[in-house]
Design a protein that fits this description.
Elements (H helix, E strand, L loop, with lengths): L8 E6 L4 E6 L2 E6 L2 E8 L4 H8 L2 E6 L8 H4 L9 H5 L3 E4 L2 E4 L4 E12 L7 H7 L12 E12 L1
Antiparallel strand pairs: 1-2, 1-5, 3-4, 4-9, 5-8, 6-7, 8-9
Length: about 160
């Protein structure tokens, strides 16, 4: 299993026709209501937020270390403004209800079961500031907590 919460991953949502992905670091795997679950946290200002909000499924894709450079694009640039897939050269792959990438070596396909904004007081400002550059990411509203039931776990 990937070092969830220690390694960067791409979270993706949408359809084959239109999707978006972004880097996430804040996350966990656990169990809720007797279901294996992936927990992630996303700012509403992010373009991927709209895709997660309007779709039933999302994926979390981990990559071998040699792909770490993709996170400079997926973590700090917006799909509203550029083609992140073209800029990084990774290859989209559609599996079951999810979007992942051929280069990913570990994938979680998740069905969204909870998506709600967190209280601002719960969000530690020092930690958020440590992992985000205010010049590149809009600061404003607090993160949304996303919980997805893990329907498929793929290790390549």
């Amino acid at each position: 299993m990937a070092n969830v919460g220690k390694e960067l991953a791409l979270i993706s949502a949408g359809t084959q026709e239109k999707f978006n992905s972004m880097t996430i670091m804040f996350g966990a795997i656990g169990m809720i209501w007797s279901k294996n679950a992936y927990f992630a946290f996303i700012k509403p200002e992010r373009y991927t937020f709209d895709f997660i909000q309007s779709n039933e499924y999302f994926t979390v894709s981990y990559f071998p270390k040699e792909f770490n450079k993709i996170h400079k694009v997926f973590g700090f640039k917006s799909g509203r403004d550029m083609d992140k897939i073209g800029a990084t050269g990774i290859t989209p792959e559609f599996i079951d209800n999810g979007i992942t990438f051929q280069e990913a070596n570990e994938i979680y396909i998740c069905k969204k079961i909870y998506f709600k904004q967190m209280d601002k007081e719960f969000e530690p400002a020092d930690v958020v500031a440590k992992y985000n550059d205010p010049k590149d990411i809009i600061f404003g509203e607090s993160h949304y907590a996303l919980i997805g039931e893990i329907e498929k776990h793929i290790v390549r």
